[in-house]
UniProtKB/TrEMBL annotation:
Designated name of the protein: Stimulated by retinoic acid gene 6 protein-like
Stored Pfam families: RBP_receptor
InterPro entries associated with the record: STRA6-like (IPR026612)
Keywords: Cell membrane, Membrane, Receptor, Transmembrane, Transmembrane helix, Transport
Transmembrane segments: 6-22, 115-133, 153-171, 240-261, 302-323, 368-393, 405-431, 460-487
PANTHER family named among the record's database cross-references: COILED-COIL DOMAIN-CONTAINING PROTEIN 180, STIMULATED BY RETINOIC ACID GENE 6 PROTEIN-LIKE
Length: 600
């Protein structure tokens, strides 16, 4: 497969040249420029719009999924096309990434090309080549040394499924383009800047909000509610699809490594068993060897048992990332930035542009490394449960275990109870009564000051010792939450004030800002109106005023029509008057009076 990856660059470059020849450039060069000889041919082609593409989303996502095996090679740093020194390894990985991207470039270019008839043929042929080579790889070497039968198929079936989908997609594109070419169907009009869901979002903003008649279900209230006025961009769909497949491949690779380590540990256990049998259980090291055997057995069982919960945790994170993306984008569209740290309210434009290029790759890497870390943490927790609860019962030490567990729970309960008691005493004796019956809590005003100072003095020495436990609990909770949320790139695990050190979270915020600035429905609708006005040479393109503009009778000046539209808008939305720019003759007092009238 690595050898074919090198040779696949030849048809890839050929397809890119053909699509580039068909792509016309919008601006021709001057005669003194050497590219003038090319005319308006050989335009720049792009694989997909990473910002504003909402159509063909799942096709792009499946195309990303077809690259999963190569991405895993890059992730494991096992794909090294060149032999260069260790200090230049970053350049080697960059070259390998460019080669993988170039070999899969025709998938995306053929899906996004305007010349559907040619691109569908080229894309189908290129996908068929990759599909045939992958099937040949699986058929020649179906088994492996770790899992055994059909090990290679376990690695390559996601890519085969994605390639089969692309074959069907390109075949559908060819049939549709051929029917248009033969005149059996009408050609689709030029794609509008404004997407349908964006137009529906703007319409929803302009409508008067109505009370909800239908009661939401538990799933809609607690988990997810579908919004017809919102769609995820192709970049997010492709990232999630590729992350799912890469996570599956990573789990399979991890299991293969586990099988190898398990076999080596079995050999080691056999040696320990032979020593114990040779010494007839009377050797000096026999108790130690028995404990080592027990540790190995428990570790293997716990590691296998925690594969499923660790996998489900990361899978839930992938879905939760989509939920957080929609929630954060909607808040930014509403002008709400309170969920962001203060230093991210106005990020640098260059950092945001770089962030959207980093996000997809970093999200996948965070999920993979996060799975491994979460798996290790869950295994350690499982080991603690086994040695703290299960094994004492197995060794007939359940009574001692329950006694120690009861003492530990009682000790922690007393500590927590004393802390709660301090709160109750402070609320009952050291705070003044409520100012009103509607107040939820007492005011922060001290009462019984002499008793309070004695209370504070005597508890000072006790709280020094209590602070030690609080410090250790803070460290333990920080470690658990940090390792548990390491795969969540949408949430920083740094302390307040140090969020800038979290590069993953910075990439998330920069990506949100780029999407917010370039896909905001209100902004896109405004640009759509400007483009429509430029093409039609009218001030308004809505159906409501078309007859007014073209009716027979006296002509109305553009200024008068604009003022009429402004008056109608202000009548329908009176609160917009507050935000209008004041003329030089109007005073601030008049604006305050106007605001008071509107509020009344």
């Amino acid at each position: 497969m690595e050898l074919f990856l090198h040779y696949s660059l030849i048809p890839s470059l050929f397809i890119i040249l053909i699509l580039s020849f068909l792509q016309r450039r919008e601006h021709r060069r001057q005669r003194d420029d050497t590219s003038y000889l090319l005319g308006n041919r050989f335009g720049i082609i792009m694989p997909l719009d990473f910002v504003g593409t909402f159509s063909n989303r799942w096709s792009y996502g499946i195309a990303f999924g077809a690259t999963a095996n190569k991405v895993m090679f890059l992730f494991s740093e096992g794909y090294q096309p060149l032999q260069i020194p260790q200090w230049a390894q970053a350049f080697e990985l960059l070259i390998g990434g460019i080669e993988v991207g170039l070999s899969h470039f025709p998938f995306f270019a053929c899906l996004s090309s305007e010349f559907q008839l040619v691109s569908s043929i080229l894309g189908f042929c290129y996908s068929l080549i990759w599909f045939a080579v992958t099937v040949l790889q699986v058929s020649q070497c179906p088994h492996g040394q770790f899992v055994g039968k059909y090990e290679t198929l376990m690695f390559y079936w996601p890519s085969l499924l994605c390639l089969a989908f692309l074959l069907g997609r390109f075949l559908h594109m060819f049939v549709k383009a051929l029917r248009v070419h033969l005149g059996w169907e009408f050609q689709v009009e030029e794609k509008s800047v404004l997407e349908t869901h964006q137009a529906e979002h703007v319409k929803q903003l302009l409508r008067t909000p109505r009370p909800q008649e239908k009661k939401k279900s538990w799933f809609q209230t607690r988990i997810y509610e579908w919004d017809p006025c919102f769609q995820f961009p192709s970049r997010m769909i492709g990232t999630i699809v590729l992350a799912f497949i890469c996570l599956y491949l990573f789990i399979v690779i991890e299991f293969c490594v586990f099988v190898y380590v398990r076999d080596e540990l079995d050999v080691f256990e056999n040696k320990l068993e032979s020593y114990i049998t040779f010494t007839n259980h009377s050797g000096v090291l026999t108790p130690v060897f028995l404990q080592v055997k027990e540790l190995i057995s428990v570790t293997k069982g716990v590691w296998v048992a925690t594969i499923l919960p660790a996998s489900l945790t990361c899978v839930s994170y992938l879905f939760h990332i989509l939920v957080c993306y929609r929630k954060h984008i909607k808040r930014l569209r509403a002008g709400d930035k309170h969920f962001l740290p203060l230093k991210f309210h106005n990020p640098a434009s260059s950092a945001s542009v770089v962030a959207i290029a980093r996000y997809s790759g970093w999200q996948i890497a965070y999920i993979l490394w996060g799975y491994l870390i979460i798996h290790v943490v869950q295994s350690l927790c499982g080991m603690a449960i086994m040695y703290g609860l299960v094994l004492p019962i197995v060794h007939n030490q359940g009574l001692e275990m329950l006694q120690g567990l009861g003492i530990g729970i009682l000790t922690i309960s007393i500590f927590v109870g004393l802390m709660i008691l301090q709160m109750c005493i402070a609320a009952s004796f050291f705070l003044q009564p409520k100012l009103g019956t509607a107040d939820k809590q007492k005011p922060l005003a001290l009462n019984n000051r002499k008793a309070f100072h004695n209370f504070n003095y005597f508890l000072f020495f006790y709280n020094v010792l209590l602070g030690l436990g609080a410090c250790l609990s803070r460290l333990l909770i920080s470690c658990l939450l940090g390792t548990w949320l390491i795969a969540r790139i949408d949430r920083t695990i740094m302390q307040n004030g140090y969020e800038g050190a979290d590069m993953g979270f910075s990439a998330w915020i920069g990506m949100l800002y780029v999407d917010h600035y370039h896909t905001n429905p209100v902004l896109v609708s405004f640009c759509h109106i400007l483009i429509a006005n430029h093409k039609e040479k009218k001030l308004q393109q809505t159906t409501k005023y078309w007859c007014l503009n073209h009716s027979a009778g006296p002509r109305v000046s553009a200024r008068s029509r604009t003022r009429w539209f402004l008056l109608q808008t202000l009548i329908n939305n009176p609160r917009l008057i507050i935000h209008r720019k004041l003329k030089s003759g109007h005073s601030s007092q008049e604006s305050q009076i106007l605001m008071a009238c509107l509020e009344s």
